[in-house]
Amino acid sequence: MSIGKTSSEILSFMKNEKIEVVDLRFMDFPGLWQHFSITAHELDEEAFEKGLGFDGSSIRGWQAINESDMLVKPVPDTAFVDPFLKAKTLVLICNICDPVTGEDYTRDPRNIARKAEAYLKRSGIADTAYFGPECEFFIFDDIRYDQNEHEGYYHIDSAEGRWNTGRVETPGNLGYKIRLKEGYFPVPPSDSLQDVRSDMMLTLESIGVPIEVQHHEVATGGQAEIDMRFNTLLTMADNVLKYKYVAKNTAKKYGKVVTFMPKPLFGDNGSGMHVHFSLWNGSKNLFVGDGYAGLSQMGLYAIGGILKHAPSILGFATPTTNSFKRLVPGFEAPVNLAYSRRNRSASVRIPMYSNSPKAKRFEFRCPDPSCNPYLTFSAMLMAALDGIANKIDPGKPLDKDIYDLPPEELAAVPKAPGSLREVLKALENDHAYLLKGDVFTQDVIETWIDYKMKNEVQPLELRPHPWEFMLYFDI
C-alpha cells in the first residue's frame, strides 16, 4: 500500500483510508522509542511545517525543567499504518526542534544521523553509506525480576529452554528442548517459534521493511534472528526501531515477550548486532578492489578507522553493562580488534558468500541490539571516514584460528575493552573524529557519558550480586 512521501500525499492517504489516530514517534537519548498521539483532524500542513509541542524535560537525557518546551516535526516519508492498534493509526517518525530558535535539537539521535549523512556527502569521499544490521533477540514465555534493599533476582522461562527437559507440563512434556548452543537451524518441533518469527517477518514487510531471512539462533530458550535488507544510514536506523516494535508486539500477541538485552542467559550465546557496512558513489561500490578479500584500498582504510576508534565506538555500540557479559575473551565473541575474511572472533569480518561487486562490504561484529542505532551507525561512519581521510593502516589480517595461537602471539592482538566504564573512558579520550562537521557535539558526548555513568555504571557497582553470596556469604 503506497502512503506517499509528501505532507499533502500523507493527508490525502489519511482521508481516503479513514485514519482515526496519528501516532508521533521519536527516540530518546539512551535509545527507546517514545510517542504521543493526536486525532487525525489535528494533523495538517502547518503541523508538518511548524511542528507540535511536548515536554522535553520528561525525556531522559534531554532538556532541563526551565527549558522544557520542544517540538516534534513529522517526517512524511516515514509513515506507516500501525499493524497492532485497535483504532486505525498512522505512525510518523519525527525530528526534534527547539521552539525558540527553530533549529534541530542537537541531542536528538535522529538529527545526529541526518548530520552524519550530510557530512558524508560534503566530504567528497562517497555519497551513500549502506548499513545492514543483524539483530538477534530472545523470545521468552515468562520473565520476573526485582532489585531492592534486601533482595535481587531474575527468573527467565522458555518452553524450549534446555532446563525444562524434566518439567511436568500439561498435557505432557514432549521433550524437544534445544540443547545449549544447538539452536542454529533445527526444524520444528525443536524450533517452536517458526510461526512467531514468520509473523514478525511478514508484518515488517507489510509496513515497508524488506526482510531477507529469519531463523532460530544458536542459544536455547528462544533466540532468534530476522535480517533486514541493507539500506541507507537514516532509513536503516528508522527500520531498527520498527523492527523492535514489531518483534515485541508480535510476541505479545502470542503471549510471549521479546528482549534485546545482549546477555540474558548464563552459559549460552548472547545477542549481537553484527553491522554490515559499505560506501558508494551512485551505483559504484567503493569497497570493491583487488586487495585483501577483494577489498579496495579505501575499504581497508575504512577498516583501519573502525579498528583504531573501536573502543570509543563501543561507547555507543555496546552501551550497557550487560553488553560486556557477551564480549568476553576466550569464547566466540568478537573481542579481537583485528580483521579477517572468515575468522568470526575478529571484530571486523569480510563476508565471502558472494563474488558480486554489489555484495562487497565488511561487517563490524562488536555492536549489540541494546544500542541506539542512530548513534552507533553515525559513529561507525565517522570512524570509517577518519580512516579513509588519514589513510589508517588496519595492519595484517587475523586469519589464524584464535584458539590455536601461542600465548605471546595472542597477547599481541588488541582486545576490545571489558566494561562499560572502560568504553566510556575511551569515548571521553577519543572523540575528535566524531565532532567533525558538527555531527556529534561536545555536549552530546559529555551528556551521554554522564548519563551512562550516573544511571547505569555506578548504580550497578553499588549493588550486591547474587553470585557474590555464592562466593562470600560464609566467609
Task: Summarize the structure in words.
With 475 residues, this protein is α+β, with helices and mostly antiparallel strands. 32% of the residues lie in helices and 21% in strands. It has 13 helices and 18 strands. The strands form 3 sheets. Strands 7, 10, 11, 12, 13, 14, 15, 16, 17 and 18 form a 10-stranded mixed sheet that branches. Strands 1, 2, 3, 4, 5 and 6 form a 6-stranded mixed sheet that branches. Strands 8-9 form a two-stranded antiparallel ribbon. Strand 1 and strand 2 (33-39) form a beta hairpin. Helix 5 runs antiparallel to helix 8 and helix 10 packs antiparallel against helix 12 (442-462). It starts with 6 loop residues before the first helix and ends with a helix. The mean pLDDT is 94.
Give a quick rundown of the structure.
The chain is α+β, with helices and mostly antiparallel strands and 475 residues long.
The computed structural class is alpha+beta
Give the DSSP E fraction (strand runs of 2 or more residues): 15-25%
Distance between the termini: 66 Å
Counted by DSSP, the helix tally is 13
Rg from Cα:
23 Å
Number of strands: 18
List unreliable stretches of 5+ residues.
Answer: none
From the spread of the alpha carbons, the general shape counts as globular
The level of helicity is 25-40%
